[in-house]
Amino acid sequence: MTIIRRCGTTLACAALLALCVADASASSSAAADYLARANAAFADNRTVAPQGDNALEWTLAAQAVEPQSERVREGLNDLYPLVVTAIDRSIATRDEAEALRLIVLLETAMPSSIAARKARTRLGAPADSATPALAFEGDR
């Protein structure tokens, strides 16, 4: 085993491997928890609201801990048209704060989103508009 020879001792390698596995497992567990919360929110028709407890934000929380997850990517793809519709509705009702919040979340989910860019233009919001704090950052 090349890894054991490079580490110097079997005990040191075992400890290092255990830390790596534990970290990956904790990350996977957190992502699974966030996705379960996203599914529950979606089932309760909480796609983008209330702020901090909706399917989009829970899926973004999962993305934060597992950015390469196929399940997260699929979830965001499924939510995409619903978020765009919610943005359009917010703009139509002149709820600029909500529209901007949703645009920022959509840009977080999909940075190259053409729909988000077009919505910003319709809203008249500059590309560097303040990003609202996501509810999952630091308190979950």
Structure, described:
The relative contact order is 0.11. The protein is mostly helical. The chain has helices at 2-7, 10-43, 55-65, 70-92, 96-109, 114-123. It contains six helices and no strands. The N and C termini lie far apart (39 Å).
In short:
The chain is mainly α and 140 residues long. It has helices at residues 2-7, 10-43, 55-65, 70-92, 96-109, 114-123.
Descriptive key words:
140 residues; mainly alpha; 6 helices; disordered C terminus
The pLDDT mean sits at 81
Query: Main beta sheet, described?
Result: none
The share of residues in extended strands comes to: under 5%
State the secondary-structure class: mainly alpha
Number of strands: 0
Relative helix content: over 70%
Can you write the helix and strand succession as a string?
HHHHHH
Report the span from N to C terminus.
Answer: 39 Å
Helical segment count: 6
User: What value does the Rg take, in angstroms?
Assistant: 19 Å
